[in-house]
């Protein structure tokens, strides 16, 4: 039985895991135990303060999120992996942010959806382990269940939690995805990394909506990623101007982080930019029909927000764009056939455009 491995066999397996992981495209593999007591307390405090906004699923699974053995019976160790996703910079993201007529999409969503890619690789990694040590119980996760992936990654030595709440690694910055294998094996634990943010507050200072309300604490209700992706209704008026041309997610806290000068570009073809999404014009994106959206976003993380939120977000960005008669005409033409929520944002955008002409 796999759980009867000797210490030397476990150490050998750990070394093999690192080699197998690299062969499958993971840049790092680490192992943690299942004790997430500190993270559990922090999560409950965050939830009690309402910082999760409308993300009810963050609180709907009881203790399963922070106690892995309740989510998957028999879990005794967790294998955590990271995979770089930063696409080659054909278009400088700072340039896009400085050209408000273009739409900014978070770097992680420019290519194909990472969930399927990483899940398939994690299963292959688990099967390689089974070939080496025999049958054992496991389950793979990629942001697909109540899993505290960031605290797990820290315990597994993949990095530390930055003040923006993302995981940072000294050799790779923060542009990477995380995935986990819950297993009933007892495995040797990796050495955690220490915090290296020091006195830096760049991410806090740069946040357009001041969503990082304290070091290591993000109020999702103010975060542009939450507002453009998770929020289903109207975007609060107080945050619309600050959104600028960010139509899906926000990378400002990562773009400013000094540790990301060490970030590595991905070699994964699935994460390469599709449909010129790294520098496409807002009017071009807004002109997509719902079928265009579904077709072009097939296999993309962006597709999950649906056409209504897509149009809502772009309408806000068009309102923030420089005054342009064509923008106003396009917004007016789109209004009659739009959803009520989208209409509200179109009306706001038209008003913003008209204000700019008045000034």
From TrEMBL:
Sites where the protein binds cob(II)alamin: 65, 143, 167, 178, 225, 250-251
Record-listed [4Fe-4S] cluster 2 binding positions: 207, 223, 250, 253
Listed SUPFAM superfamilies: 4Fe-4S ferredoxins
Catalysed reactions, as listed in the record: epoxyqueuosine(34) in tRNA + AH2 = queuosine(34) in tRNA + A + H2O
Cofactor, free-text remark: Binds 2 [4Fe-4S] clusters per monomer.
Keyword field contains Iron-sulfur: yes
Binding, tRNA: 308
GO biological process terms held by the UniProt record: tRNA queuosine(34) biosynthetic process
InterPro entries per record: 4Fe4S_Fe-S-bd (IPR017896), 4Fe4S_Fe_S_CS (IPR017900), QueG (IPR004453), QueG_DUF1730 (IPR013542)
Cofactor (UniProt): cob(II)alamin; [4Fe-4S] cluster
Keywords per UniProt: 4Fe-4S, Cobalamin, Cobalt, Cytoplasm, Iron, Iron-sulfur, Metal-binding, Oxidoreductase, Queuosine biosynthesis, tRNA processing
E.C. numbers: 1.17.99.6
Keyword Oxidoreductase carried by entry: yes
Any one GO MF annotation of this record: 4 iron, 4 sulfur cluster binding
Pathway: tRNA modification; tRNA-queuosine biosynthesis
Superkingdom in the source lineage: Bacteria
Cellular localization per UniProt: Cytoplasm
HAMAP family to which the protein is assigned, alphabetical: QueG (MF_00916)
PANTHER family recorded: EPOXYQUEUOSINE REDUCTASE (PTHR30002)
Quaternary data: Monomer.
Function: Catalyzes the conversion of epoxyqueuosine (oQ) to queuosine (Q), which is a hypermodified base found in the wobble positions of tRNA(Asp), tRNA(Asn), tRNA(His) and tRNA(Tyr).
Name of the protein: Epoxyqueuosine reductase
Organism: Leucothrix arctica
Lineage: Bacteria, Pseudomonadati, Pseudomonadota, Gammaproteobacteria, Thiotrichales
């Amino acid at each position: 039985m796999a759980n009867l491995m000797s210490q030397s066999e476990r150490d050998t397996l750990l070394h093999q895991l690192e080699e197998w992981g690299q062969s499958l495209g993971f840049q790092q593999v680490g192992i943690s135990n299942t004790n997430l007591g500190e993270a559990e307390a922090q999560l409950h405090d965050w939830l009690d303060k309402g910082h999760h906004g409308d993300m009810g699923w963050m609180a709907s699974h009881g203790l399963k999120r922070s106690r892995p053995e309740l989510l998957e019976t028999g879990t005794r160790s967790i294998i955590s992996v990271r995979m770089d996703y930063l696409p080659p910079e054909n278009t400088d993201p700072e340039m896009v942010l400085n050209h408000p007529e273009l739409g900014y999409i978070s770097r992680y969503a420019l290519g194909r959806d990472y969930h399927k890619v990483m899940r398939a690789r994690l299963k292959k990694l688990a099967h390689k382990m089974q070939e080496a040590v025999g049958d054992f119980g496991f389950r793979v996760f990629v942001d697909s269940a109540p899993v505290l992936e960031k605290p797990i990654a820290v315990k597994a030595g993949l990095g530390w939690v930055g003040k923006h709440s993302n995981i940072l690694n000294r050799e790779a910055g923060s542009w990477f995805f995380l995935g986990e294998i819950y297993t009933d094996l007892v495995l040797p634990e990796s050495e955690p990394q220490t915090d290296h943010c020091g006195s830096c507050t760049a991410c806090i200072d740069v946040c357009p909506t001041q969503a990082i309300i304290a070091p290591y604490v993000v109020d999702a209700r103010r975060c542009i990623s939450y507002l453009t992706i998770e929020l289903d209704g109207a975007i609060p008026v107080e945050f619309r101007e600050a959104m600028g041309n960010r139509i899906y997610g926000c990378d400002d806290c990562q773009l400013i982080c000094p540790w990301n000068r060490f970030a590595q570009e991905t070699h994964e073809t699935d994460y390469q930019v599709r449909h010129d999404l790294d520098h496409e014009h807002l009017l071009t994106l807004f002109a997509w029909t719902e079928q265009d959206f579904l077709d072009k976003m097939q296999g993309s993380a962006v597709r999950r927000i649906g056409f209504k939120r897509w149009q809502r977000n772009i309408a806000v960005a068009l309102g923030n764009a420089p005054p342009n008669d064509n923008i106003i005409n396009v917004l007016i033409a789109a209004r009659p056939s739009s959803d009520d929520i989208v209409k509200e944002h179109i009306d706001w955008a038209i008003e913003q455009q008209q204000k700019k002409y008045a000034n």
